[in-house]
Batch of 2 targets.
Target 1
Amino acid sequence: MSVVNAHTLNRQKLFKTALVDCVIVAAAGQLQRNSDVAYPFRQDSSFLYLTGCKIPDLVLVITQNKHFILLPKRESHRDIWEGSLPVAEIIAASGVDQVLSYQDGWELINQQVSKKRIGVIYPPKNFLGAFGMYTNPTRHVLFSSLKRRRPAEIVDIRPLIAKQRSIKSKQEIDIIKKAIDITAESLNAVMRGRYEAKFEYDLEHKLTYEFMHRGANGHAFSPIIASDKNAAIVHNINNSSPLKNAHMILFDIGAEVSGYAADVSRVYALQKPSSRQVQLFNVVRDVQQQIMQLARPGVTILELEQKTQTLLSSKLPALNLRKPIKHYYPHGVSHHLGLDVHDTADYHMPLQKNMVITIEPGLYIPEESIGIRIEDDILITDTAPKNLSANIPHDLLYYL
């Protein structure tokens, strides 16, 4: 199956389940970094899923008989400075029937929208307090523009596309596996050459090179390369501490290939570990292996989480840890993986064949300068779960 056919089938499937007259989806927009400099662009994942296009500010329109993309309105001088928009490439990547200018496209949308049911991906809040970040405004702009055109109803298709994206095609699974394999090869190269690294960021820079050298787009998310006490902070992305005298290092990393993410975590000893460090590592590894075997069709991620907390809690007395489990293990054990590292999905829905999830228990003890997380990427099958990242060594002592 070609990439074009895959995106076309994604659109057809979404339109069939949406039960609307028209689906309209906005691409992400380019955002200002400072002055006249933009942040590196990353396409909206659902737009990428439906089109394969990595160009900002496009608009996708899906009707019963026609799929087309609108080009953005933009200043003419940008064609000189940045090059003209590649219409032929947009058609080749997406498989749409037509690419229209901004003016012609909105004239056609006006005909499609008035007094009809329109499906859109509803815009998020302007600011996501849980993550301390502002959201891309293009969905808001599209939503406001469509409301002014007085459709009969605007239908939120987020649940539909989340459910659809959670079940991966063979092509998607192959791409995710490629991202994982690149991550494995790159991490091995970094650890083999670790003696040249003086700081955590030296390892990050080497990893970036290895990812791109092997054909990845780069990192799927900000990498976590945290030694000793830094690893006790779950999402410590500073990667700036010296490695001299460090005992252990935690990697939470993943390459991105064609928009799809790998996401693995490993902890390796940089010198002979203490018996305490080995004890804690073995507890996390044992729990991970037990939870991994439970990841089968019919089980929910919530059930995996409850079992993880039960298992880890049972280990605390022997570890001389007296506080509740969420003090030492503040995150969840699993999330979906795909075009987003924490991929969109219905997290109440039981696991099904061809979902890809992570299994990542951990223990974090800041007062002991220890943080341990072991994470693998798991394909749900009809029978036993398949560990897609099993080829990345788990052994704490592997590189000593």
Target 2
Amino acid sequence: MGQFDWMCAHIVYDPKKIYPQLRNYLVIPYLSFTVPEPKYFDSIIYPEGFEKYHFKAAIPARNKYMIDSSAYALCYVDDGHTETDADREDFQRLLADVMSGRINCVIVKDLSRFARNYSDAGSLIDNLFVQMGVRFISLAENVDSYRDPDSVSSIIVPITNVMNDQYCYQTSKKIRQVFDYKRRNGEFIGSYAPYGYIKDPQDKHALLVDPEAAEVVKSIFSMFLSGKNKRGITLHLNDHGVPCPTAYKQSQGLKYNAPNSQGNPMWSTITIDNILKNRVYVGDMVQGRQRVKSYKIHIQERVPEEEWFIVENTHEAIIDRETFDKVQGMLKRDTRTAPKQKQLYLFSGFLKYADCGRAMSRIASKGIYDLCLLSMRDLQEPF
């Protein structure tokens, strides 16, 4: 049994020695758990299906039984989350339980397991826990706000928190440097290959053409060049049951979820627009279009195009450059259409008013006219 489990067990049965009238419960977390001094427990609980649990799967079961049994100890586990993120799910659950008065003691293996953001850690330990009367124990640093109140105010605590924070900063900096090096060399570093490609099984930083998805990409460019607008392409793909990139990747067994996707994913004009503008389809590797604000604030922000990492001819192209350039020229023109229109008009984006140079707008009223709305507004103003 690990040191943390040993401490949790003692927290449950130590009060029983002093106050025999208390009822206590011990929930077994995983198979290797050794019950310390069984005589001090009124009940030892083995959750249903216990023999099937490994360590991480057992934590939720243990928490449920402890809640149902009104026991003394709960576990808060944030697997796969960085301690610089104060919004991680179980950390917020712990704070909510502190604020509600549900718990009165917080035990951590060491301060880095609690928080690596030194300002957050200091505020919670020095202010919130004190106000709420919560005992704080950190095993590695020998901190115990109840047995030794001075240990919380020791210079070791803030110094350790600052060192933990700096460790995250340096680690983040080194990881970014490695990623930038790979980007400059044209190595793909994304989790999932762009639609139309797959990762090379022999080299995860290289891209190979996915024949099935590549045909859809080609059809999108072809339909746009033939005069079909982005809305028309979207409707065509959805009407013909062509899986959108999210649905297609999921059908290939990938655990992929597009941001903000809900329910049954479908093609959208935004997806079509992104495909038509993506240089990856001419064989160029384009990366670094987004970045997180900092190692503490994990919010994505757009990067100016001049700061992107672009390496040409790193993989097989799906679209030839001549076709791609034609499409980019069409996208730059004003080719808006009526909401129900699926095809571009013949002169869409080409007709301009001779005096002001603005694009003409098509108006249907007892006939069809191409007019400059600016000149019409000027004519309506009194002299």
